[in-house]
Amino acid sequence: MTSSETTAEPLPEPPPVAGSVFGDRLPLAVRYVEHLATSGVERGLIGPREHGRLWDRHVLNCAVLGELVPDGAKVVDVGSGAGLPGIPLALARPDLHIVLIEPLARRVDWLDEVVADLGLTVAVERGRAEEKVVVRRWEGADVVTARAVGPLARLTRLCLPLVRPGGSMLVLKGESAAEEIERDRADVRAVGGSDPRVLRCGADVVDPPTTVVAIDREAAPRRSGSRSGSRRKGQRP
């Protein structure tokens, strides 16, 4: 089944506010939603029950993340899946330089098809954020994003090495974000992240606003058992 074929349900119409988010690229956003509602469901990237919530819960919810991203930023979307949040960001913010990182081949194939169909200048990389080849190719990002990928401590270990010093991780989370921060704060700090903070964006677009945990890269990871000036066994002073 392709996105050009009809579905059992009519495609969800964009809410009026979508025009203010996507501007003259709204037709591309509509086309993306069509991909999600058809081939995205057929190939297991989106659940069939999400049909009526594609705009508010997925596309607009992700696009408003652009409020927190600097102009012209290099953005790496880890575990992109159905292109969320990377593709909505690319549609709403064509000034951004975005790469979608996804480990599963069938999802990468779908992302390649959608990016080509929409004519986006977005790179798609098959791999995992922790793989050396991925780190070498995409490190130095201004912003690394992730959505529904895993616990905050694990996400920070995976994503922070891709962030340039002074850059940020922007992780889309749910209502339990504050509790997750309290649980994982020490782990985040241990790998060179700043104190995590909860931000809200898209207050005039989506209800409730999108919840984001922001973590800046402050330093290199702390190495357990290492001390400045220490010598290896047998090493002469």
UniProtKB/TrEMBL annotation:
Entry's Gene Ontology molecular function annotations: rRNA (guanine-N7-)-methyltransferase activity
Sections of the chain in a coiled coil: none
Chain intervals for the UniProt region annotation (Disordered): 214-237
Subcellular location(s) per record: Cytoplasm
Binding-site residues for S-adenosyl-L-methionine, renumbered to this chain: 79, 84, 129-130, 147
Gene Ontology CC entries for this record: cytosol
InterPro entries on file: rRNA_ssu_MeTfrase_G (IPR003682), SAM-dependent_MTases_sf (IPR029063)
Pfam families: GidB (PF02527)
Annotated EC: 2.1.1.-
Main location: cytoplasm
Top-rank EC class of the record's enzyme: transferase
Superkingdom of source: Bacteria
Keywords: Cytoplasm, Methyltransferase, rRNA processing, S-adenosyl-L-methionine, Transferase
Family of this protein: Belongs to the methyltransferase superfamily. RNA methyltransferase RsmG family.
NCBIfam families found in the cross-reference section: rsmG_gidB
Function summary: Specifically methylates the N7 position of a guanine in 16S rRNA.
Descriptive protein name: Ribosomal RNA small subunit methyltransferase G
Organism: Pseudonocardia endophytica
Gene (UniProt): rsmG
